[in-house]
């Protein structure tokens, strides 16, 4: 048995021995799919092919093709981290692109669709303008948050475009939308639905989606509208391609027409662990061992991402600090915090938050107490900010609640303030006041309204009085200061109160970046290299040692116990299907509360895929356990199922472990 190749791009298993279930299941578990026409197992995925190198020999043609494809993949990965390019990109007189921005333009030219995931603050808007100047698309649609329509999009188009495009900004339900040739149309997410019928009449040469992570929810109308619009080329921009979990990438991959965006649950099972929760819920945890593979695939197909520390070594670093105010927490806060710790025990950050949100009444109580904490912190925060301002340096303050923002702003004079209630048309002027007015030393804004699409690099001090439940929203807000144009180290202070909910949240958030980095940062790219497959020109059918040993092990378990492992798995799955609540409800079906976890493990791997084989220990323990459920199993399978009859009436042989 070996891996062979058929042009143009199909690898298949040749010389497969007798098609027992074991043979099929193992080949299938490697990722190969059955071709009923050619009657062989095949794949076009280079990642699947690479997994077989240690298991099966290759034909010479398959080996040469693999090495050629792997070399191309490595070059594409290198292109996704390039920080310079020789490409000539036209720019207005007096302006020039940074070297890494030219590399991004080259990447956009060489790829049909693009996920530009450069770190926040590197100038992705300018990179898109470079592409537009070079490619000169006939008509362009830009979808972005409302705050970004005038600043930065209109500003940067007017500044960087070398072509006489007409700029049309859509503010509401616009009956005069004209997206004909020579027009750049800018629309925000909130009014996309109101104008969808008018927009859908056009096929755009280029669609740009700014802050594309806002489309993470496949059920949201904004996501459905964005997916339905036609464009010859689509460029997605986001400094945070995932906010918390890998599955948040899926809708973006769908929009980019990426192969990974074809099946939601396949994507989930490939890169996450899925565990049942409650009657019909699921707990989805990142599979960190698979995330470097996901990054390789993204970088070799659609994603470009560079970090500020790599392309702007002269940009000083960020420094985060927790500043704790020592005031006595109320008994109510102490009780809530204790319950939060109990509920979150053993869970990662995202799933802890999901569990808290699931109890709507309890989560509402948490939010009410956090709001009270925010108001309590105002006098402490004002005093802290006054001390910073004594150094005559500009300071940026972020909070969550409007009344907290206003209470802080009202304590100072000549303050720049932006909240969700600030008209979008006025925000650019407010930003410019803070950036350029030497007498305006303080900017105060709420995280959601001021955390994206504005520049605040005139300051190098940021203070967070309140926090957001989503870490990436805080990092985006930080990068309003830490971006191109910043000349000083950025000092970020998180103000928290001792033994409070905010303390718990802040400690988690400040240290929370691992999963995101596994998918996006180059330091987590495993060393990618072309491997040398073992060549075998003999097409005689044979079974490789690893496969033969596994098949023999299952047969040996049947010989020693009289029960084949597949019977144990079949019975375990039948009971597991009746046990979605893990025996939380007493209903006399499925497993009892002691057996539920092991029963589930008998039929499913940690990845969520169905189990095909058992170890000796699991096999014996499974038989012993399943005998207890004799009457349920006979009720499910019937008296005539001889394999189940043998299982439930099993007598343990002497001498078994």
In brief, what are we looking at here?
By secondary structure, the protein is α/β, with parallel strands linked by helices. The chain has 27 helices and 21 strands.
Descriptive account of the structure:
- With 657 residues, the protein is α/β, with parallel strands linked by helices.
- It has four domains: 2-79; 99-305, Rossmann fold (3-Layer(aba) Sandwich); 318-512, 3-Layer(aba) Sandwich (Rossmann fold), CATH 3.40.50; 545-648, no CATH class.
- Helices cover 42% and strands 15% of the residues.
- The strands form five sheets. Strands 7-8-6-10-12-5-15 form a seven-stranded parallel β-sheet, covered by helices on one side.
- α4 (99-110) packs across α5, α6 (149-160) crosses α17 (424-436) and α15 packs parallel to α16.
- The protein is globular.
- The two termini are 36 Å apart.
Tell me how many strands there are.
Answer: 21
| Largest sheet entry | 7 strands, parallel
Based on secondary structure, the structural category is: alpha/beta
Strand content: 5-15%
> Rough shape?
globular
Name the CATH homologous superfamily of the largest domain: Tandem AAA-ATPase domain
Could you state the oligomeric state of the chains shown? Answer: single chain
| CATH fold topology of the largest domain | Rossmann fold
Number of structural domains: 4
Summed up, the helix count is 27
Strands, helices and their partners?
Blueprint: E1 2-6, E2 10-14, H1 21-29, E3 33-35, E4 40-43, H2 46-51, H3 60-79, H4 99-110, E5 114-116, H5 124-135, E6 139-144, H6 149-160, E7 166-170, E8 183-188, H7 196-199, E9 203-204, E10 206-210, H8 221-228, E11 230-231, E12 234-237, H9 250-255, H10 264-271, E13 272-277, E14 281-286, H11 291-299, E15 303-304, H12 308-311, E16 318-325, H13 331-344, H14 349-358, H15 360-389, E17 395-399, H16 402-409, E18 415-418, H17 424-436, E19 442-446, H18 447-450, E20 461-464, H19 471-478, E21 490-497, H20 501-510, H21 514-520, H22 545-561, H23 565-577, H24 596-603, H25 616-626, H26 630-637, H27 642-648
Parallel strand pairs: 5-12, 5-15, 6-8, 6-10, 7-8, 9-11, 10-12, 16-21, 17-19, 17-20, 18-19, 20-21
Antiparallel strand pairs: 1-2, 2-4, 3-4, 13-14
Helix pairs in contact: 4-5, 5-6, 6-17, 11-21, 15-16, 23-24, 23-25
């Amino acid at each position: 048995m070996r891996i062979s190749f058929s042009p143009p791009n199909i690898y298949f298993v040749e010389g497969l021995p007798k098609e027992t279930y074991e043979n099929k299941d193992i080949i299938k578990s490697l990722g190969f799919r059955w071709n009923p026409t050619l009657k062989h197992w095949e794949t076009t995925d280079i990642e699947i092919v690479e997994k077989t190198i240690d298991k099966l020999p290759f034909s010479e043609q398959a080996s040469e093709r693999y090495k050629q494809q792997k070399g191309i993949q490595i070059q594409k990965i290198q292109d996704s981290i390039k920080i310079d390019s020789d490409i000539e990109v036209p720019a207005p007189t007096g302006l020039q692109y940074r070297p890494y921005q030219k590399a991004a333009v080259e990447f956009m030219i060489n790829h049909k669709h693009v996920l530009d995931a450069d770190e926040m603050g590197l100038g992705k808007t300018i990179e898109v303008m470079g592409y537009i100047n070079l490619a000169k698309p006939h008509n362009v649609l830009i979808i972005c948050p409302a705050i970004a329509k005038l600043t930065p999009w209109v500003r940067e188009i007017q500044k960087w475009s070398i072509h006489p495009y007409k700029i049309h900004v859509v503010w509401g339900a616009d009956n005069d939308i004209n997206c004909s040739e020579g027009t750049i149309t800018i629309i925000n997410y909130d009014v996309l639905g109101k104008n969808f019928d008018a927009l859908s009449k056009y096929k755009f040469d280029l669609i740009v989606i700014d802050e594309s992570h806002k489309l993470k929810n496949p059920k949201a109308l904004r996501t459905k509208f964005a997916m339905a619009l036609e464009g010859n080329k689509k460029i997605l921009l986001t400094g945070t391609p995932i906010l918390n979990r890998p599955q948040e990438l899926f809708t973006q991959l769908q929009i980019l027409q990426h192969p990974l965006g074809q099946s939601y649950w396949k994507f989930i099972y490939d890169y996450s662990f899925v565990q049942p929760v409650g009657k019909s819920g699921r707990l989805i945890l990142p599979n960190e061992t698979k995330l470097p593979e996901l990054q390789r695939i993204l970088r070799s197909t659609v994603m470009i991402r560079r970090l500020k520390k790599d392309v702007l070594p002269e940009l000083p670093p960020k420094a985060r600090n927790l500043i704790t105010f020592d005031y006595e927490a109320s008994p109510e806060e102490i009780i809530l915090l204790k319950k939060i710790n109990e509920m979150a025990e053993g869970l990662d950050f995202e799933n802890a938050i999901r569990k808290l949100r699931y109890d709507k009444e309890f989560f509402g109580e948490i939010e009410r107490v956090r709001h009270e904490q925010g108001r309590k912190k105002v006098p402490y925060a004002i005093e802290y900010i006054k001390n910073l301002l004594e150094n005559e340096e500009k300071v940026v303050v972020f909070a969550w609640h409007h009344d907290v923002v206003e209470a802080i702003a009202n304590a100072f004079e000549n303050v720049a303030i932006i909240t969700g209630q600030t008209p979008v048309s006025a925000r650019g002027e407010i930003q410019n006041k803070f950036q350029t007015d030497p007498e305006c030393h303080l900017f105060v804004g709420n995280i959601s309204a001021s955390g994206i699409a504005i520049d605040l690099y005139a300051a190098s001090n940021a203070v967070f009085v309140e926090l957001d439940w989503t870490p990436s929203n805080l990092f985006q807000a930080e990068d309003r200061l830490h971006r191109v144009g910043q000349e000083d180290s950025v000092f970020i202070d998180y103000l928290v109160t001792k033994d409070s909910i905010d303390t718990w949240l802040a400690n988690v958030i400040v240290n929370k970046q691992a999963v995101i980095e596994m998918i996006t940062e180059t330091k987590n790219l495993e060393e990618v290299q072309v491997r040398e497959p073992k060549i075998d020109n003999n097409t005689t059918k044979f079974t490789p040692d690893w496969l033969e040993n596994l098949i023999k092990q299952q047969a040996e378990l049947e010989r020693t116990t009289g029960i084949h492992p597949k019977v144990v798995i079949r019975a375990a799955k039948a009971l597991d299907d009746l046990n979605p609540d893990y025996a939380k409800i007493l209903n006399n079906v499925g497993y009892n509360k002691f057996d539920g976890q092991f029963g589930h493990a008998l039929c499913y791997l940690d990845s969520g895929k169905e189990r095909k084989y058992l170890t000796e220990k699991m096999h014996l323990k499974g038989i012993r356990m399943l005998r207890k459920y004799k009457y349920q199993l006979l009720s499910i399978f019937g008296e005539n199922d001889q394999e189940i009859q043998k299982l439930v009436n099993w007598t343990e042989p002497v001498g078994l472990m």
